[in-house]
From TrEMBL, chains A, B, C:
Keywords: Ammonia transport, Cell membrane, Glycoprotein, Membrane, Transmembrane, Transmembrane helix, Transport
Protein's name according to its UniProt entry: Ammonium transporter Rh type C
Organism, as annotated: Erinaceus europaeus (Western European hedgehog)
Keyword Cell membrane tagged: yes
Domain Ammonium transporter AmtB-like positions: 54-433
Region forming the signal peptide: none
Length: 457, 457, 457
C-alpha cells in the first residue's frame, strides 16, 4: 500500500511549533556567558580579567568551526553516496542539525551551564551542542532513506534529550572522561539509531534495491564528507579538552590513530575482494573508525604508538564489519543499517570506551606527573580520594549506561516513529528524493542509470 | 543578432592593465602594519610589545581564513546550481574576487590605514578586503549568466570604489557599527547588483530558459557553497569585532540566528508547494538569510533569543520572496535576478540594518555595563556625548545612505556596462559556459539534459 | 601484453607490513613534546610556564588544520579532473598521505626533534609531516593514472626519506630559510616526480587517450581542490614561520601573490586560445603558482608589491608552460606529466628559490631593524658572523642541492618502480578506476561519454 507522503501541513507545523517553543525557552532561560557578555569590559576595568586573550573564545573557536564543518558538510555529504538521495542526505541532515543544536543548547545548558536561573552561553556550549547533534547524525545514518523529515525532527527531539541525560550521568554522576565522545556520542548514537532502524524494519525494501547503490559521482560527493570528517577529527577530539597540553595531546593522538586506520582499511578492503579491488564504501567509512576509537582516550597519555595500535585495529574491525557483519545483521536480525553505522560508530565506540577505561586505569603520577595526574582526571575536591583504577572502573560503567540508555531509548522512540502519521514513504519509494523534493526536470533518474554498459577489463 | 563574444584581446588586456596598475600602486603606497613588520623584534627588544601573542594575527587569522573560504568556495559554488554555467560561476567569481581584494586593499587602505604616506597592511585589512569583495559577489548573483568576465572586472572596479566610499561615510562620518555588514555589504551589494541587472535587462531571455534551471548534481555542488557560507558565517560577523566579548558574542548570535532560519525556511518551502515538497532553491539560499540579518547587531547585546527571532523572521521573508517576489520583479519591473539576491541579501540586509538600529537605541549601561557600553559603541573622544538613541538614529541614517549609494551607483555602472563592446553574449547564449570556456568533449550539454524521463511517483 | 593488476595480496601485505613497522618504531622512538605532555601541569606548578597560552598549540594549530585540508582535499580533488579516475585520485592520495605523514614524523623527528633517545611530537611536527607529504602529492601528479597503489606506497617510502635528508641538508647544514618549501617541497617534489615519470614512460599511452581528458563535472570537482589549495596557501607558507610578525607577514605576502597570479593566468589562458576562450586546466593549476613561488620569501620583507610581481610573473610562466612546454616535454623528452606539475611546481619552485635568495641577499638592518634582521635569519650563535649576502648564496646553494637530490633520487626510485611486480596497469588500461576499484553498476563509463553532441554556438 502507498502511504500518504504529502508533508504540506505536517512538516511546516512541526518546524514552526518547535522553533516557536525554542524562541520562548531561549527568552526565558538563555543569556551570555561572562566571556561573551559586554560586562567583560567592566571586569577588565576592575582587573578581574588581565587580557582579552584570556577569553575562552581564543582557546576554542578554531576547533569549534572545524567541528561545525564535520556536522554539516562531513555527515551531510558522507551520506550523499546513494544515487538519488543526495538532496535528502544533505538537506535533512541540515534540518535536523539546525534544530538539534538549539534544543541541545537548552538541554545541556540546564545540566551544565545553569547559573542564577539562566543558561549562560559561551563557545564551549556551541561545541557541545554540535557534539550532541553529532550523535543524531550518526543515528540518521541507520535510517537514511527510510524516514520522513518529520520523523527525523521527532527523533532528534527525543535523542537530544536522552543524550543530555546520559551525558549528565556519565560526566557529572560517574565523573568519567569522554572528551571525544566514544561513549556519549558514538556508542550512544549508533545503538540508538540501530534500535530505531530495527523497530522500523521494512519487509519489502528490496523493491527499492536499485536505488540503494551509488553512482560514480555520488561516491565522489561522499568523499567530500569523508575527508572533512577525517581531517577535522583531531579538532573534534580536542575541542573541549583542558587548555594546554590536553588539547595538544588529543589532536596528536587522533591524527596518529586516523592515519594508521587508513592503511589497515585499504589492506582489508583489498584482501576481501576476489580480484583485490578496493571498495568505496570501505574507504568512505572505515577510514574514520580510528577517530571514533580514540574519542575517550585521546586526551590521556595514550602515547602515539598507542594511538596507532587503536587505529590499526579499528580499520580492520570496521572494514570486516562492512563486509560480513552488516549483511548478517540485515539477513538475520532484520537490522537495515543503510550507512553501516554499526561498523563505523558502534564497534569503534565500544573499543574506544574500553581503551579509555584501560588507559585511565593505567595512569600514574610517573607518566602524568603529580599535578598532571590530578589535573588530567580532576582528582581533587570530591574526587580527591580517587585512584586511576577507580577511574577506570567508572569509565567502564559509563559504557554500559550508554548502551542501556541507547537501546531502551531507541526502542521507545522507534515505536513512536512507527505510528503511520509522520509521512513516511512506502517500501518501494524509499531512497528516492522525488518523494520529498521538487526535482529538476529530467533528473528523476540519475544519468548514470541510463543505458551505459559496464566495460570491465 | 549575435554579439561578438571573442574575448581574445579584450580579456587579456583588461586583466594585464589592471594588474600592472595594482603593482605600481602597491609599490608606491603599500607597506606592512607594525604587527607584520620585521621591526616587531626591535619593538619587543624595546619592551613596546610584551608577547608575540599580542600580535593581531592571533586574534583574527582563524576568522580570516573562514571568511576567505566563504568568498571563494561559498559564493563560487553557491552559483553553480545552473546546469551548464558551473565553470563561469566558480571561475568568474574567482577572477573578480582575486582582482577585487587587491583593489579593495588600496581603496580601504587609503580611507582607514593610511599613515605617513603609506597604507600599512595587516590581517584586518585582508578581512575587510574580503568583505568588500563579498558585496561584489552578491551583485554578481543578480547578473549571473548574462555578463562577460570583462564586464565583471569593470563592475568590480567601480563597485569596490563605491563600497569603500560608502563604508567610509558610514563607519567614519556617521560612526555607525556594522561589523557583519548588513548595510555596507549586503544591502549595498544587493541593490547595486539589482540596479545593474535592471539596466542590463534582456528582453528575450526566455530563449535561454532551458539553461536557467538546475540539474541534480549541479544542485549538490551548490549545496557545498551554501553549507560553507552557513557554517562560517559566525566567523564572518565576528571577524572584525572588538577583541574578547564582542567577537565571542557575535559568533554566538550568528550561530543562533542561522539555526532558526533553517527551520522556518523549510517550513515555508514545504507550505508553498502544492504537495508539500521542498525546493532546493529555498534550502540553498533562504537558510542563509539569518546570517545577513544579524550582520549589524551580532556584536551587540541582541541576546540569543533576539537572534532566534531575527532568524525566524528572515527564513520566512526570504523564502516567500523567492516564491512570490522574484517572479513579480521579473514580470513587472523587468529585474532579472538570476540568484534571487533580493531575497537573500537585500531584504534581510534591510531587516538587519533596522534590527541594528533598534538594538543600539535600546542599549543601556544596565545591559552593557558602564565601561561595556562605552567600549561597545566607542562613546569616547568625539562620541563622548553620544547616547544610545543617537547611535540608533545614525544607524538608521546609514541604511538610507547605503541604499542611495547603491541605487545611483548601480544605475551609472549599469549604463557603462551596457556599451556593447565588453563581449557580452546574446540573449540566446546566456547561461552557457561554452561561450567563454573551452569545453570538455561531448559535454556542451549536460548528461541530465539527455533523454531521461521523469518518474515521479 | 596485459599486466597482472590483481592486488589481492600485494596491496594488503604492503600496507600491513608498513603499518606494523611504523607501530614498532613509534613504540621505540616517539613520545610527546613537553607542550603536549601531561607534565605540563607540573611545569606550570613549578612556574616554568606562565600560561596555557604559551603552548605552541595556540600559535600553530589553526594553520595546521588548513594545511591538512590542502593535503587531503586540496591535492586529492585537484587530481579528480580526469573523467574516470576520480576514485583513484582521491583514494590513492588519501592512502599515500596517510602512510607518508607517519613515516615523515619519524624521519623528520630523528633529524629535528630527537632528544634523550626520543622523538618528541608536537603540533609543529604534524605540520612538517604534512609538508613532507605535500612533496609526494606533487610527485603523484606526474604519474597519476599510470601507477598502482603499491607503487605509490613504495615511492612515498623512498621520497619521504630523501625529502627528510634534503631538508636536513638545507635547513641544518646550509641553514637556509624555506618556510613555505619552494625548494624542499615544490622543486624537490616536482623534479623527483618528473624523473620517476620519465623512467616509467609508456610508449603506447595514446591507447588510453580517451580517458586522459576531463568531463564537465569532473572539472568542477577539481575546482574544489584548486580553491582549497588557493585559499589556505597563506596558512601553508606561514605555518612554521617564527611567531608574531613572520607568520603575519608570510600570510599577507602569499595572499597578495596568489591574487595577482589569478589575473595573469586568466589573461594568458584567454590570449593563447584562438577564440579567446578560457581553459579549465589553466584555471585549476596556474592560479596556484603564485603560492609556490613565494614559499621561500613569504616570511621575509618581500613587500606586498614584491609579492604581486612574483604572482604576476608566475601566472604567465605557468600558463605558457601548460600550453607549450608540457606538449614539448611529452613529444621530445617522453616526460608524460599527467597534471603538468612542471608548470605548477617545478618552474614556480625554482623562481621561488631565486626570489628567496635575492630577497635574503638584499636584507638590511634598515628594512628589518637591528634585532629584526638577526631574528629573521637567526644571525646569532654559529651564524653570528653571517651577512645577508652570505645567506643569499647559501639559499642559492640550497636550490642546486634540492635539484640534484630530486633528479638522482627520482631516477633510482623510478628504476625500482619499473620492476613489473607492483601490479601496474597496461598502457591501454591507464587512467581507469575500474582496474583497482569495485565500480558502481553502469558507471564504468561516465555519462558524459555517452552520445551527447556538442552544441557550440
Amino acid at each position: 500500500m502507498a502511504w500518504n507522503t504529502d508533508l504540506r501541513w505536517r512538516l511546516p507545523l512541526t518546524c514552526l511549533l518547535l522553533q516557536v517553543a525554542l524562541v520562548v525557552l531561549f527568552g526565558v532561560f538563555v543569556r551570555y556567558h561572562p566571556d561573551a557578555d559586554a560586562h567583560w569590559a567592566d571586569q577588565k576595568a576592575a582587573g578581574n580579567v588581565s587580557s582579552d586573550l584570556d577569553n575562552e573564545f581564543y582557546y576554542r573557536y578554531p576547533s569549534f568551526q572545524d567541528v561545525h564543518v564535520m556536522i554539516f558538510v562531513g555527515f551531510g555529504f558522507l551520506m550523499t553516496f546513494l544515487q538519488r538521495y543526495g538532496f535528502s542526505a544533505v538537506g535533512f541532515n541540515f534540518l535536523l542539525a539546525a534544530f538539534g543544536i538549539q534544543w541541545a543548547l537548552l538541554m545541556q545548558g540546564w545540566f551544565h551551564s545553569f547559573q542564577g536561573g539562566y543558561i549562560l552561553l559561551g563557545v564551549e556550549n556551541l561545541i557541545n551542542a554540535d557534539f550532541c547533534v553529532g550523535s543524531v547524525c550518526v543515528a540518521f545514518g541507520a535510517v537514511l532513506g527510510k524516514v520522513s523529515p518529520v520523523q527525523l525532527l521527532i527523533m532528534t527531539l527525543f535523542q537530544v534529550t536522552l543524550f543530555s541525560v546520559n551525558e549528565f550521568i556519565l560526566l557529572n554522576l560517574l565523573e568519567v572522561k569522554d572528551a571525544g565522545g566514544s561513549m556519549t556520542i558514538h556508542t550512544f548514537g549508533a545503538y540508538f539509531g540501530l534500535m530505531v532502524a530495527w523497530i522500523l524494519q521494512r519487509p519489502n525494501l528490496q523493491h527499492s534495491k536499485g536505488r540503494q547503490s551509488s553512482v560514480y559521482h555520488s561516491d565522489l560527493f561522499a568523499m567530500i564528507g569523508t575527508l572533512f570528517l577525517w581531517m577535522y577529527w583531531p579538532s573534534f577530539n580536542s575541542a573541549v579538552s583542558n587548555h594546554g597540553d590536553a588539547q595538544h595531546r588529543a589532536a596528536i593522538n587522533t591524527y596518529c590513530s586516523l592515519a594508521a586506520c587508513v592503511l589497515t582499511t585499504v589492506a582489508v578492503s583489498s584482501a576481501v575482494h576476489k580480484k583485490g579491488k578496493l571498495d568505496m564504501v570501505h574507504i568512505q567509512n572505515a577510514t574514520l573508525a580510528g577517530g571514533v576509537a580514540v574519542g575517550t582516550a585521546a586526551e590521556m597519555m595514550l602515547m602515539p604508538y598507542g594511538s596507532l595500535i587503536v587505529g590499526f585495529i579499528c580499520g580492520i574491525v570496521s572494514t570486516l564489519g562492512f563486509e560480513y557483519l552488516t549483511p548478517f545483521l540485515e539477513a538475520r536480525l532484520r537490522i537495515q543499517d543503510t550507512c553501516g553505522i554499526h561498523n563505523l560508530h558502534a564497534l569503534p565506540g565500544i573499543i574506544g570506551a574500553i581503551v579509555g577505561a584501560v588507559t585511565a586505569a593505567c595512569a600514574s603520577a610517573d607518566v602524568y606527573g603529580k599535578s598532571g595526574l590530578v589535573h588530567a582526571f580532576d582528582f581533587e575536591g570530591d574526587k580527591q580520594s580517587w585512584t586511576p583504577s577507580m577511574q577506570g572502573k567508572f569509565q567502564a560503567a559509563g559504557l554500559f549506561v550508554s548502551l542501556a540508555m541507547a537501546l531502551v531509548g531507541g526502542a521507545v522512540v522507534g515505536v513512536i516513529l512507527k505510528i503511520p502519521v509522520w509521512g513516511q514513504a512506502a517500501d518501494e519509494n524509499c531512497f528516492d528524493d522525488a518523494i520529498y523534493w521538487e526535482m529538476p526536470e529530467n533528473t528523476a533518474l540519475h544519468p548514470e542509470d541510463s543505458a551505459l554498459k559496464t566495460s570491465e577489463p
